[in-house]
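Final report, Chapter 2: Outcomes

The project's central promise was a pipeline that accepts a single protein chain and returns its three-dimensional structure in a standardized token representation, suitable for archiving and comparison. That pipeline is now operational. To close this chapter, we reproduce one record exactly as it appears in the project archive, with the input sequence first and the structure output second.
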Amino acid sequence: MKKILAGVAVTAAALVALVAGAGPAAAHASLESTSPGAGQVLVAPPGQVELTFSEPVEVSLGAVRVYDSNAERVEEGEVRHDGGDSVVQPLGDLANGSYVVTWRVVSADGHPIHGAFTFQVGDVATGDTDALARRLLAADGGSEAVGVVFAVVRFLVFASLVLLVGAAAFCLLAWPEGLGLPGVRRLLWWAWGVAVGATVVSVGAQGAYVGALALRDVVDLDVVSSVFDTRYGRVALGRVVLLVVAGVALVAAARQRAPDEGTDGRGKDGVEPSVVARVALGVLGVALLLSLGLSGHAATGDLVPVALVADLVHVGAVGLWLGGLLVVLAVALPRAQPDELRRVVPRFSSIAFAAVVALVVTGVFQSWRQVGGLDALTQTTYGHLLLAKLALFVVMVGFGYLGRRWVQRGYRNESVDVGADDAEVVAGYRRSIRVETALGIAILAVTALLVNAQPARSALSQPYSAELVADDLLIDVTIDPAKAGPTDIHVYTLTATGAVAQVEELALELSLPERDLGPLEVPLERAGPGHFSAYDVEVPLPGDWTIEVRALVDDFTEATARDTVRIRGR
């Protein structure tokens, strides 16, 4: 048996190195430039479409498609990486006219991003390509059913892994002999089974989700195969291997139990696992929790090594707290053995307190890294979910405090005889940790949604982009980034059908009415046909700015358009 456990430990250590060796990724990707450019009029047809992103992206589950004004596809061949952060889609022989490019790629953190733009070959526009682009984007939104399935599966993966590792770790730290009890083993095997099943299903769900496919494609072998070409798929495969090894370790550890232990779990305690078994289970636990970070936000952005460690500590603390709660609630309290409760319950109370401290410290770091500022906290889905998680956490800590008081009342005092008088203590403690457990499960659900949400910091770094209407003129305005400080501004003038519209002059002004600031004139320069730009424009303050664009169409006609743009803090 020791040889089996030693093999498990070696295998687990190798898999930790394999999983941890996956390269770090940058933040949530965004499109930085295209060739042809959005709205560009070309004299000669291009041979390819090239898109450059802020980080490397994955295209095995995505696509770059090019349509003519009749919604007929005109690209040829497969989309490919062109080195660095660019992807290239070859084209066929394009005739003069208007075209729409739609793209969908997978960001390094596993989230899909998509968009569309138009360009024109020759002087004559054909069809309303802006309307076609909007229709194609709407059709690329994906299935709501797939989104629901994906969210549920991600929750099951996260919750089962946290509870599996947390319950086992709690027993190793506070109740080693408990690992041999039937109640604890059943809890661990249930968590293990859910983790394996949910991880397997999550591969197909990830493919259908990021590819905007139908629910039936969750079990499509081609879709599943494509996911294994992505970061998410490789981490999921490694996690399944780790879980198989963990199953072997659990079987080996289960053999180490007292020979006269009752089948109802109320008999003699199980035998404590050996040092080799503890090391094997500990390494496996670290690797399994690390797999969550490697397929999520911790592996993206700045300070990735520190973020992975912080995420590991954070999730591990959650596991110890919730896993300990379940073990105490489902196994220790029902056994109702006084001496056992005197040992286990105070230990759990101390571990839970240490877990709360670790959660606060790592949570502050993660919030600073993924959120950055108050605007990101209050104006993004990620921020709203984080506030909800914080509120649940505060309430859970409150009930944890009540439970700790019950522990101090009933189990810290050695002079108190645990018997009939202890019934009140046990009942009060059970009520407290039941609510605490329910709140913990709710926090896991919110955390699973956070894993699937775009980080607030990167969500707020998205540019402002709008199409303004001024009489018969369409004016496309982009401010990137839409936050205080230096920013770049691009303006395109188009006809109602989407063709490039030449104007004599173009002026853009910014005003901040709430501060009585402005108008500030933006120094636009002509960058091409129907294209004006200004770089490193200093926007001094955050707030709701009014943007006014005036286009001199000819000597006698001026078109004006206004909009409000939310400029965020630095």
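Archive annotation: Residues 338-370 form the longest helix (33 residues).
This record, like all others produced under the grant, will remain available to the consortium after the project formally closes.
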